[in-house]
Design brief:
With 360 residues, this protein is an all-alpha fold. The protein has helices at 4-32, 54-70, 78-97, 101-122, 136-162, 169-187, 193-206, 219-239, 247-251, 253-268, 281-287, 292-315, 321-358; strands at 35-36, 48-49. It has 2 domains: 1-243, no CATH class; 244-360, no CATH class.
């Protein structure tokens, strides 16, 4: 058991380091002219430095090394550190000079394989207490699980990158999800609880520089790495005992629902679903007149009004895994209804505004 003063000190130090690195990144971005310019697919109106997510990355990596080597909690951190660093490097390159989508995707896949391949091979390592019989049937199931988990982590990286489009949205979501998963892991005495709280602190340290007014954007270096961190946190929570396996997906429901509903609507409309766009609900809300801060508050309201109660019911004493999956289905059904209703309101508002403008 890690002493509370040590845990609190680590969380505070992680937030402070993230804030310091984020502040330094503003000066670096200005010197290198790393600016996001306003445009048709942008939700900001003034040139803004990018790449501030390096503060989140640096603080998160420092917390990983401290927790594993200084506090000796958990397994060898090298795979985790290398995977996070690899995703951050892909984003850093893209922030500086641009990187083709295919190369970004390949970089993400390599990072995930670095993280997961040793875990997969350990299942067949002789002498392991959890060794399984390498029958064709077991190999098939393990290969399917490995492929699904790999796709899930790559999907999480890109999903959170897509959702990083307005001031403060991704950072506040990362704070909420990591803190919620950390709390669940703490109640279950899972070894990753402290690291999840530290990751929440890393995002929190960056937040004042990005919200409510953006002095810098986190860029791909931050959004992609946060996506991997949140995906890893969801997997850790899913494998933790005494918690509902669906809790991680419930915690991230507002982002997952927005991204998934947007993707499906574009595919059904025959659009190029993989191209850049501004059709997520949060982007429609901004174009309909909501401020960035108001949209962030709306998404936080979902987290506290829907996610927190569902997580409580799914993980209360006496709850079963089935209760968690029912809660997951209910949360996503409600999220889909909210997405459709919100999108229709935005479209009606846009038509009324266009009609009023045409009448002058």
């Amino acid at each position: 058991m890690i002493p509370w003063p040590t845990a609190i000190s680590l969380v505070l130090a992680t937030a402070a380091l993230s804030a310091l690195l984020s502040w330094l990144s503003i000066h670096y971005a200005r010197r290198r002219a790393l600016l996001d310019l306003p445009g048709q697919r942008r939700s900001h109106s003034v040139p803004t430095p990018r790449g501030g997510g390096i503060g989140i990355v640096g603080a998160a990596l420092a917390s990983c090394l401290f927790v594993y080597f200084r506090l000796e909690v958990g397994e060898d951190p090298l795979r985790l550190v290398v995977a996070l660093t690899s995703v951050a490097a892909v984003g850093w390159i893209d922030d500086h000079r641009g990187l083709a989508a295919l190369w970004r995707l390949l970089g993400h896949i390599v990072a995930v394989l670095i993280l997961l391949l040793p875990m997969f091979s350990d299942l067949f390592h002789p002498g392991q207490s959890a060794q399984v019989s390498a029958t064709p049937h077991s190999v098939l199931w393990l290969a399917a699980f490995f492929a699904l988990l790999s796709a899930f982590l790559v999907w999480s990286i890109n999903l959170h990158n897509f959702m990083d489009g307005i001031n403060g949205l991704l950072a506040t979501q990362a704070v909420f999800v990591c803190a919620a998963l950390g709390m669940l892991s703490l109640t279950a005495s899972a070894p990753h609880a402290l690291l999840l709280f530290a990751w929440a602190a890393a995002a929190l340290g960056f937040l004042p520089f990005n919200f409510p007014r953006a002095r810098i954007f986190m860029g791909d270096v931050g959004s992609g790495t946060l996506g991997l961190m949140i995906g890893i946190g969801m997997f850790w929570q899913m494998t933790a005992t005494h918690t509902a396996p669906a809790s991680g997906l419930i915690a991230g429901s507002v982002f997952v629902a927005d991204a998934t509903c947007t993707l499906l609507s574009r595919m059904l409309a025959g659009r190029r679903w993989y191209s850049a766009h501004r059709e997520h609900l949060y982007q429609w809300l901004v174009r309909s007149g909501f401020s960035h801060a108001a949209v962030v508050v709306l998404y936080l309201c979902w987290n506290f009004a829907v996610v927190v109660p569902v997580l409580y019911l799914a993980n209360r004493s006496g709850a079963t895994a089935t209760d968690g999956w029912i809660g997951l289905g209910a949360a996503y059904a409600l999220a889909a209804v909210a997405w459709v209703g919100g999108k229709r309101w935005c479209l009606r508002h846009a038509r009324r505004r266009h009609g009023a403008g045409s009448g002058h």
